[in-house]
Amino acid sequence: MTDISPRTLNMGTENSFVVLAKVNKLIAEGKPIISFCIGQPDFRTPENINQVAIKAINDGKSTYTASDGIPELKKAAADYFTKTRKVHVTPESVVVGSGGKPFIMYTIGSVTQPGQGHEVIFPNPGYPIYSSQTIAQGAKPVPLPLLEEKKYNFDMDDLKKKMNANTRLLILNSPQNPTGGVLSKDELYEIAEIVKPYPNCWVYSDEVYSELVFDGEFNSIVSVPGMQERTVIVDSSSKTFAMPGWRIGYAANEKLAPHLARWVTNTDSCATHLCQHAAVEALNHESSWAEVRKMKKVFDERRNIIVDGLNSIPGFRCLKPGGAFYAWPNVTEACEKLGCKDSEELRERILNETHVAVLSDNHFGTRNEGEGQHIRFSYATSTDHIKEGIARLKKWVEDNS
């Protein structure tokens, strides 16, 4: 019998999709599920984008493209990065991918080497692919705890302790999944000072929620003097334009661009041709951005509703997230009230007994010592669903504790 490689067997996954499969099974059985699992906008892609895609089909845009993307999209992304990150980004430094996610693998693979003890620091809790791809690429994962007392940012002294000569990549995610935390401009400058003494350390700045900062403005570490040349900035059309299934992302770094493009050649060949034209329309036209502003306004309204609702449930404590569309309540007291050993048991009981679907903190890394238990809600769902889901949870907790 042939064996499966250990790195494949040990590679993690994105459990939101695992939970979603069970949720869909329950829905198919007729259960009245309200799901807060998946982080994707519940809006239609703006119509002007759809129409460009239809035209691209009719115009025969079904061929391969250059691995790094069509020139029109590379320029549109470069112009967008230049405007929003306050640095000059050239089209030559941009690479287009099949969503933002592949660039995690491409970047780790480009800056680390298996068997050399190279380390990748990433936020914990955090997007699970950071850890799984670090392991798959043969590097050492180094989780960086996010702390409730710091509004789910990390302790700078802790980062200093974790940095060393083997550190090859620091992953930042702001606004952050799953906590909704946002790094401030001052914090980014402080991070830059910590990183600068380590010339072999790159920064991967995952900025796919950049257009969903509700309090203040979005800031990128790439705008800190001296950081652009060592930072890979990544954004995508998925969250911004309600285009998750179109699978278009864009990364920028002058030195790494040709190497990232080679990874694209070795994996996907290129991003889907017609979708690239749709992304050009998304980035370049005001009608798209008008829809983005409308979606952001709705997400902000939902943020207030869900945070107030969660804080009304006995045993739940929820900070107001600064960005993205996730709420990350501390449910340590609720677990105690309901006799649940941890957040995963609580999640399962919530699903089975209230038909409300959420994710638990163990889906986003290891639990940080002293931080208690948490579950994640995506409020990329309707206001009516948010209100109904909160009402079910509140009654259930009150009736069972």
Key terms:
Aspartate Aminotransferase, domain 1; eight-stranded mixed sheet; alpha/beta; 401 residues; globular; single chain; Aspartate Aminotransferase, domain 2
Structure overview:
By secondary structure, the protein is an alpha/beta fold. It folds into two domains: 6-44 and 289-400, Aspartate Aminotransferase, domain 1 (Alpha-Beta Complex), CATH 3.90.1150; 63-285, Aspartate Aminotransferase, domain 2 (3-Layer(aba) Sandwich). The chain has 15 helices and 13 strands. The strands form three sheets. The protein has an eight-stranded mixed sheet, with helices on both faces. A three-stranded antiparallel sheet has the order 10-13-12. The chain has a two-stranded parallel ribbon with strand order 1-11. Helix 6 links the parallel strand 3 and strand 4 (140-147). Helix 4 packs parallel to helix 11, helix 5 (102-111) packs across helix 6 and helix 12 runs parallel beside helix 15 (383-400). The termini are far apart.
Give a quick precis of the structure.
This protein folds into 2 domains: 151 residues, Aspartate Aminotransferase, domain 1 (Alpha-Beta Complex); 223 residues, Aspartate Aminotransferase, domain 2 (3-Layer(aba) Sandwich). Helix content is 43%, strand content 13%.
